[in-house]
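Pasting as-is:
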Amino acid sequence: MKTRAAMACGAVLLALFAGACDSDTGEPQADPIGTVKKPIKLTFMAYGPDEEVAAMQSTVDQFNKEHPTTKVTLEPAKDADEVIDRLQAKNPPDVYLLSQRDLAEVSKQGLNQPVEELLDSRGVDFGDFYKRDAVDAFAIDRRLQCMPYGVSPMVMYYNTNLIDWEAMKEQGLDSPASHAAWTLDQFNAAAEFASNRPGAKGVYIEPTLEGIAPFVYSGGGQLFDDQRQPTTLTLSEESSRGALLRTMDILRTDKLTLTPRQLRKESALDRFKKGKLGMIAGYRTLVPELRKTPSLSFDVMPMPMLDTGTTVGDVSGLCISAQPASVSAAAEFLVDTISTESVERVAEAGYLVPSNNEVAEDKAFLQPDQLPAHAEVFNRTVRDIVQPPLLDSWSDLEKAVHAPLYKMFYNRLLDLEDLTDAIDEASKPVLENQQEPSATPTG
């Protein structure tokens, strides 16, 4: 996206006059200008593991050093929910990290302002430097609501001691030719190969909508009846049910998967760390935690393919509040935070899959001297992410369908028709109570 004169002019006017408005007259006031003695004070709220937040603090410190007329204070949040709570309180942060799943709620309540003109006027090139899918995820009515920061696809982690592709090939077992893609049959063969080890199980997939979504989409099914304003889940439709049937043939096999009793004794992640589980699905945030187990050797594959390569993603963006202390100062900080140098500092902590392509393709992210050996899988799989509709609350939907979805995984007898009907019915009260979308997602 190239800078356009008209857009730049609009952005300049916005920076000058889009500050706080007089509550009585409604007339715009000039955007405050900071000085060295009296700098503009901004708050930046972000969440994540301690190491990642510490890396963000280093980018804030560097920005403050290079911009003495602005003073940014990082306010760590324990999670994405705390960010929403602060945004709805009296003193919201000026700039904040937002999960894409909360974008609908934030946009509807007017807690942010579109950023494309502010960034475009400051020379940010959206064309080749940022992942297109991540940009689309934060666009509503063709306006960029927040700048994409991280875009982590769900991938399949596997223990390379329990699953050895070369050993499988020597035994004539179906195994993938590369780390670019693999089939559901190859996934099944890998789970069986791992479970042949004493005390080991083949695979764990969390019994949630998020857990089954890649399989449903890959098999030609859909989760929702409408991408803009869904009213029900559609797991009972023939294509979705067919994809689930193929998947559950594997995920319900006692020899391959963990039972509820085993999970109560020890989590799937702890079993994976101890070399007692062949595969577990997850995002990039698992990498630093797995690296802390010296005896664990692991790598990553895309999610297995039924018909097409698909997955889901954990996408985050940087947003500017509706009324920051200074629009122009907030925009300058945002530009600095998404710069290559700043993103590199955060990517080196190991948790972030940057939407900045330059960093994502460099050693700061790929970290070739550390596990996983095929970190490029994260970059390659971004294009396969299917974004869900913008919902007011994804967690409410997961809670509503938990009981029948759990039965799908663990009931002794599988009545897929009744269970998918029950899941769809349970979703309707939640989805029908969604507010009318204020805008249409672009992606």
